[in-house]
UniProtKB/TrEMBL annotation:
Keywords: Membrane, Transmembrane, Transmembrane helix
Organism for this UniProt entry: Acetobacter nitrogenifigens DSM 23921 = NBRC 105050
Lineage: Bacteria, Pseudomonadati, Pseudomonadota, Alphaproteobacteria, Acetobacterales
Name the UniProt record assigns to this protein: O-antigen polymerase
Stretches that traverse the bilayer: 37-63, 84-102, 133-149, 161-179, 223-241, 248-280, 292-313, 369-388, 438-454
Length: 471
């Protein structure tokens, strides 16, 4: 057993913050940008940095519950989490039953694809156990955090600001790594990439331009994270919320995404740009269409001025940009794209061959989210997740109407936009979303919605009480 430098930093911090669980969740959101690092190494098993504050938070809340503590909105939060808990229960049962029910009848792509180089026959593996463990911890963290954060003493906006601060840190690290790849600046790879269980792709090139992955395992993972930051900052800016440096973070996160040269990130931004007018109309904020036009004009002017300056003073940069754009447009002809498409097609085949039941959580690894979910948890799990998403969006829309402009609704809108960005990128190219910080963001959104519900009940209860007293 070894404790890398990341663990030597996180373990003492969690010890100091153990009695401040809201601060531990903020630390978790920052630690979530280091998925390729290890906080604790046990042979071939590495503990993700974000799990250190996550496990510390779980231990605190479980101890409080054993001592009889209750949180003001825990019942409402649990009801909102209900479909997700059902999906988790189905996934855990399926990971035990399905690999044995369909043993040697279905071909799957294993979790460690680099060890076999192709599909294998379905059998129970250690991947079922490890992925079950991660899923159970993530959902338990989500439920407990959603319950705890309904306490009025906790400022949810601080957690949202911690998420944005993590976004700033990712951008800084992207620029730092770019300087290292181009100018030879020292970049602490052993600190950021200490997770021996992950294959880190930090030497990829797009023509003459280095592809940047920052602290993530590959450029697409970094771009997926930045997509959440970009979606969130653009949306809260359009809605007129006063979030410090949010406009600068829009430009910074866009710069970081460009440094990754990831097709996933570019495609996610394109999808977001197409969906934004629809979301504006759907949320009843048609007045924002003018702001979208203004933002588009500002971006066009900045791109035009920046492109003209680069063409004048650095023509080689323009040539590199043209080469990146060409390679992105021709992505469908690449070997990697064909391999990813084949993995998704094989996952859909596994879904059909198991009669829609799935091969079990942890048995198959796809290239994108939807085929991966269909192949592993089947139709039942996907329906439960769809119900959870629908209830969460419906409750968020109600909260925005019930308390417009409140701190809670700012958190709801910012976090829901961030989740939308991450999900969009995962649907394009992401086998799953198994990082604890994503589940904490869901918990923050649920807690904010529940707080609005409690405020609404308190506001309607006062006139009724006064009326009864008058009688």
């Amino acid at each position: 057993m070894t404790v890398p430098l990341m663990g030597a930093i996180l373990f003492p911090l969690c010890f100091l913050l153990w009695a401040r669980p809201d601060r531990m969740l903020g630390l978790l959101l920052v630690a979530g940008i280091f998925p390729a690092a290890s906080a604790l190494t046990l042979g071939s098993v590495c503990l993700q940095p974000s799990l250190v504050p996550g496990l510390a938070f779980i231990s605190y809340v479980v101890l409080q519950k054993l001592l009889g503590a209750r949180y003001p909105g825990q019942d409402s939060a649990s009801r909102l989490c209900g479909p997700m808990m059902l999906a988790t229960a189905w996934a855990l049962v399926g990971s035990i039953v399905m690999p044995r029910l369909f043993r040697n009848q279905v071909h799957v792509w294993p979790q460690k694809q680099d060890l076999v180089g192709g599909q294998v026959l379905l059998t129970p593996t250690f991947g079922n156990i490890s992925q079950d463990t991660y899923l159970l911890l993530n959902v338990l963290l989500m439920v407990l955090a959603a319950q705890y954060l309904t306490r009025w003493q906790v400022k949810l906006s601080r957690l949202y600001y911690a998420y944005l601060a993590a976004g700033w840190l990712v951008v800084v690290l992207c620029v730092w790594q770019f300087g290292s790849r181009v100018g030879g600046l020292p970049f602490p790879k052993t600190f950021f990439y200490s997770n021996t269980g992950w294959a880190v792709l930090d030497n990829q090139m797009a023509g003459p331009v280095p592809r940047i992955n920052a602290t993530f395992s590959e450029p697409s993972a970094c771009a997926s994270y930045l997509a959440g930051i970009l979606f969130s900052t653009v949306w809260v800016t359009l809605k007129g919320y006063k979030v410090r440096f949010s406009r600068l973070l829009i430009a910074a996160s866009a710069l970081g995404m460009c440094l990754t040269t990831s097709t996933t990130g570019f495609a996610a931004v394109a999808v977001g740009a197409l969906l934004m007018p629809i979301m504006v109309v759907a949320t009843g904020a048609a007045r924002l269409l003018g702001r979208i036009g203004q933002l588009a004009m500002i971006c066009a002017v900045l791109l035009g001025v920046g492109g003209l300056a680069l063409a004048t003073f650095s023509p080689h940069t323009v040539e590199s940009a043209q080469m990146i754009a060409s390679s992105t447009a021709e992505k469908k002809n690449s070997v990697s794209y064909q391999e990813r498409s084949q993995a998704d097609a094989d996952s859909l085949t596994a879904f059909a061959e198991t009669y829609g039941l799935g091969v079990g959580w942890g048995s198959n690894r796809s290239s994108s989210l939807i085929p991966g979910l269909l192949a592993t948890v089947g139709a039942v799990g996907v329906i439960c997740l769809a119900v959870f998403d629908w209830r969460l969006m419906k409750s968020a829309a109600w909260a925005l109407r019930a308390a417009p402009g409140s701190p809670e609704t700012m958190v709801v809108e910012g976090v829901m936009a961030a989740l939308a960005g991450r999900l969009t990128a995962a649907c394009i190219s992401g086998p799953t979303i198994g990082l604890p910080d994503f589940y904490v963001l869901i918990a923050v959104a649920i807690a904010a919605i529940v707080r609005v519900q409690m405020l609404n009940r308190a506001a309607t209860a006062v006139p009724v009480g006064a009326l009864l007293a008058a009688e």
